[in-house]
């Protein structure tokens, strides 16, 4: 057995165990680097880059250094690649379709690659990079601006003379095993990210934990919030499609961030509306959080409308209805197409309350159930009167938030 095999065998066993246990990428990479150092590998820095399947982030980078340990960085999606990526050894490898890259920090490399210049200033003597792609090999070269799924990896040494052939052999031997463990971990993280983005934070977590059977649901008490943009149909007839989508995304971004900041869960987008739920453990906490979110949302959208009007962009107001009660929360749909959502009389009544905005002349309407649950409230809840709503036997009193003079 070679010296490389002696070092590799226990590391492969450890990496395999981490992958089977579903350990996070951070813990796998931290342990991997620490074990290399314990095996007397002269590792100054380790870096790994992966694609990210996330609507906001296009990639993620992990860096380990002997001095700072493990750190990571997310890279925003953007149409034009950043200069640091275009001038990196990883990009050059993909551009030239090379499997490996090595540098002893000669003048040309330090000039061509800013990261090598930075490393040389820390005393680095050797840089070795390679890649591990996931999936079947492709007959066409990888597009460096849209790399396929996989990972790019580099090791840096500050030992005089750099890495030995045995060190490089060890890196190559361990790489497929490391890639498999990280692929397992990243796929679970990807599933978690996408489920939260498309289903909402709470629903995504529930689905990932196994709540996937059609008809499975639970009865809960919660505050239901229905947010809607006013005049959207008229704007849809006047604005070009891209401008309409930009406007919708702008307002939705404010609404979602505000609601989630106060503990609300986004259940679904419905055209120009959003159905949300507050379920914080008690109906009193739910009501107070929902009212805080509604009040903050009113101020933020008013502020954003001033900014949009100043920039010559179309503006829209909003309506918001709050009601509370028992709902069924879970999987509804067909065997091959499910939706994790909320249904029940409380949801239906929230929609009917929302339809009262024109009649009462207010953007925010709060049911008497929410008003009672939130009492005492720092918000001035003013009665709008009692109304008979379709499908409801008794009249209900409606309220709004009075903000007063600024």
From TrEMBL:
One Pfam family recorded for the sequence: Guanylate_cyc
Domain of life: Bacteria
Chain ranges of the Guanylate cyclase domain: 223-354
UniProt-listed SUPFAM superfamilies: Nucleotide cyclase (SSF55073)
PANTHER family noted in UniProt: ADENYLATE CYCLASE, TERMINAL-DIFFERENTIATION SPECIFIC-RELATED (PTHR43081), BLR2264 PROTEIN (PTHR43081:SF11)
Protein name: Adenylate/guanylate cyclase domain-containing protein
Annotated organism of origin: Parasedimentitalea denitrificans
